[in-house]
User: Fold these one by one.
Assistant:
Number 1:
Amino acid sequence: MPAGGTPARLIRYTAPVRRVCIFCGSYSGIRADYAAGARAMAGALVRGGLELVYGGGRVGLMGILADEVLRLGGAAVGVIPRALREREVGHDGLTELHVVETMHERKAMMADLADAFVALPGGLGTIEEIFEVWTWAQLGMHQKPCGFLDVAGYYAPLAAFLDHATREGFIRPQLRAAAIVESDPPRAHVTPWPRRCCSSAPASFIASRPSTRSTSAR
């Protein structure tokens, strides 16, 4: 996605969506396009009247995304393990900040809070998180879309791998089709699982997972 692109149509989804969970890096990466993509996503959320759910950090793309949502007058809800908050990487200016004890609790609460999931550029944590919710869909634990917002070709190699795994018989074609890596967000559409789902604005609400206790800081 070129710098300044607007992922507005990512959020088109036929089921009610109030909150979108976004996974992204705690680093900003080496390209200015990545920060621009995070800000563009923030703008799309706020214009669409959608709240952000994310990992609660103030650094990297996570911080850029949350800061832009707040600057534009939107709501940003963070979920962060206590150990990370105590290392002073938590964002204290959020609409809501839920502090949990473990990474597992963090992911469960984010799933409980959100109606949709989107992966922006990020590292191991980002990939692990989006692949886990995608796997939950494969197991029938939710029926909402999952996907990736490609920025400056970041996810092109991953898309090629997923296509290869599908051809080799390890990913079902309908599951692969449900999470598309889209480099042009304005063209992306989000439709209910297991039909087409766009890479720009994925979604997942894990109704079968128990709610997680947390403390909430404002």
Note: The chain has seven helices and eight strands.
Number 2:
Amino acid sequence: MQGLSQVNPVWMRTFPHRVAPMNDEWFPGVLLRCDEVNCWSSGTTFRYLRQHSQQERFGPKPQLMIVPAAILEALAQFLLIPEERLLATTYHAELARLYGSHHPHGRLLSTPFTFHLCPACVAHTRLLKRTLMWPHLQFCPLHHIELRNTCQCGVALWPFSGKALPFTCFACGLDWGSLPQRQIPRTRLGRELQLGLFYNYFLVEGTPRRMEYAAEILRRHEKEESMLSWNEHPQVNLFEDSCPGGKHESSNKTLSQAQLCSRIGVNYQVVLGRWGCMGGRHGISNRGLSQAQICSKFHVNHHILGLTSVSRGQYSCGG
């Protein structure tokens, strides 16, 4: 009778103790839990994956919002889980859809990256939440406490230290779950919730076109604040949908002066009262101002509206 001491070859290709990604977990959090459950120092799993997959070209503090496919594939094999579950711990899919690129860079989410965490999330479940890595967030929406990016000793926090235990400060050894928990002020709650909704909208439903719309709204707001000429700002045609293929449309697609005023955010009655009387006659038909003149009066480049001249008082979409 054969003994039962034979080792299954599968176990030789996995970690001694395995973990699985939690809901909304960030990729470095999975690596740190691998270190902790196997009694390894912080960053051991990450260093091994880099060597195994021959992915050594990382900076001293990689953001890991986007993770090379070779590392994801290797870790999936060691943990015996589908690679898609690890991909969900990054922002690859969201940034690829938002920017229309198959190979997005993590800096598209945040150029000046700051690592911060919720002490309560770490204390309860050893969780580094992916959504808490969004730029400019300062509080955890679940526990309503301040996110921490420095230890009590004053040292900046970072996931991988090389010598310290996982989830601890490499300088003083304090567990991240023991960091002070400061409650969010009521005056900041609304801003934090609104910021989270914006991030969720663009990362879940965002497209390159919607990013253009958002950028144009910000440029318009900046113009109103600074009173700069519209010509000094980059231009995005918000109304190109009404001009498919850049071709002329039928007469019912032409813009009246009232519609034009509405699109550029100008009170039609103001235009009518200020410049609508020409030759003693009120009205803003062909005897009044053309669209180009209206745009000029309000420092708006009429070409951004996708309009070309048809007559003094009538414009339509043009190629």
Note: Strands lie at 307-309, 315-317.
Number 3:
Amino acid sequence: MNQSILQQEPNESTDFEGELATKLVPCDTMCTEGKLTGELVGELSFRMKERTPTSHPDVVICSGTVTVRTAEGTLSGSDHVVWNVTNGEFADYTVFDSGTGCFEGMTGSMTITGTFDLANATGQSKYLLRTKSA
């Protein structure tokens, strides 16, 4: 259980750090899901809506949605990724604007950095989630 979320005071921010192991899952675009470990335990899913090339042929910008699910509730928001498809390195930023359960009325953001290997359809990364209560 994520006690610090359940005990958050009004207008208080709380940070959670840990690791995320992801895998590619079937969908109509590109989707991943994985396990969050560390200070926040749960699952994360990503669904790409758009993939935009950049001036560098190996780097793309992806946008989509991220959903974080824990035993206590769910956070959902818009996601933006800068990804080097050749070496797999990426930097990801999500803005959460809706939540259920213990996340109801909260906002937040999450940064994720790591690698995602398309050939193996798996990724390893670290996350920092910052929630703010209403």
Note: Residues 61 and 72 are 32 Å apart (CA to CA).
Number 4:
Amino acid sequence: MNYYSEETPSVQSVVKSDFEYDKTYYATVRLNLNNNNTLAGNFRANINGGQYKVSNALLFNTISVPFKLTKRSIKDADISCAYTSFTYTGKQIDVAKYVTVKYDGKTLVNGTDYELSYENGVDVGYQTCTLTVSGIGEYKDSVSKKLTIKPPKLAAPTLSTKNSAIIVKWKKVTTYAVGYQIIYDKVESFDTSSANHTEDYHTTTVTDLNTLTKTLSAYTKPGETWYVKAIPHDYCASETQSDFSSE
């Protein structure tokens, strides 16, 4: 709380740490009076950026000025999540280490400035999990984001060859899958953006969960080296990223 005279500037401050947010308080400002018990000039009280003018005709040496502390809105923060999809584990997902919240360049602290909560954070689904960032402490309001939970990963398939074909076998998935996707490539990383990548990147889909083998022969030739992986196939396969939205 500061007050000063427009003619004879002087600043004094009062700090109080136990104010409650969104509650009206009244600050008593003591004024400098001249020998005639009137103000030496036009005074203004500055409290939280608000100015309160005091008339020259005031015959008392104090004024009472209302003020209120307001929390910052988490909606105005810069919130990001490093990933938008997570693999099913059968347990509640926890993305706290992937979430960053900044306000005016300051990195906020989980548990002090905000807290995270989840809705539908266990079961597999495309953007069916809702992550909510709620302001606490000096912050208020909440922001939400849709996340995807993918089916569990498959163990590495077993491979064998017959003539120029590759025979792929894998273990059955019983949780949240509608089929299997087989990916085979001549580049071990399966990275289609790789500089040495060829056009020999292929996929095929098996829609029967009870079918646990697939023969690849359309593109393979004797003497070639191929890399193969199998993944559960479901409606999460063509995931797109979503942004945070306010609530």
Note: The first strand starts at residue 2 and ends at 5.
